[in-house]
Design goal:
By secondary structure, this protein is mainly beta. The chain contains no helices and 11 strands. The strands form 2 sheets. Strands 2, 4, 5, 6, 9, 10 and 11 form a 7-stranded mixed beta sheet that branches. A 4-stranded antiparallel beta sheet has the order 1-3-8-7, with no helix packed on it. A hairpin with a 4-residue loop joins β9 and β10. The chain is globular and about 40 Å long. About 30% of the residues are buried.
Length: about 110
């Protein structure tokens, strides 16, 4: 079955960095678009970024553009989200998803605080 497992979350200071990973299994990873979304308390789900199957195209929400970078390693069935210049408003539970948002991981918590 399709599985997505996020990792790499934690506590970071404002201006700091974290790298999230999404390890996938149970489907043809190298043919699949993978995205990241986040949800914080009191807010709806927010799309963050996505990457095409071969990495040739990426997209970002305006709120993270220039600070976050999505990438993938199809040999490792893994998508990464490098998050730099973190802000307190980036604090959220971060999910990766695929299959037209049909499949989601369990999420990894990111907290940005001094």
């Amino acid at each position: 079955q399709v599985q997505l497992v996020e990792s790499g979350g934690g506590l970071a200071q404002p201006g700091g960095s974290l790298r999230l990973s999404c390890l996938a299994s149970g489907f043809t990873f190298s043919s699949s678009v993978i995205g990241w979304a986040r949800q914080s308390p009191g807010k709806g789900l927010e799309w963050v970024s996505a990457i095409y199957s071969d990495g040739s195209d990426t997209g970002y929400a305006d709120s993270v553009k220039g600070r976050f970078t999505i990438s993938r390693d199809n040999s490792k069935n893994t998508v990464y989200l490098q998050m730099n210049s973190l802000k307190p408003e980036d604090s959220a539970l971060y999910y990766c998803a695929t299959g037209g948002l049909k499949y989601w991981g369990q999420g990894t918590q990111v907290t940005v605080s001094s």
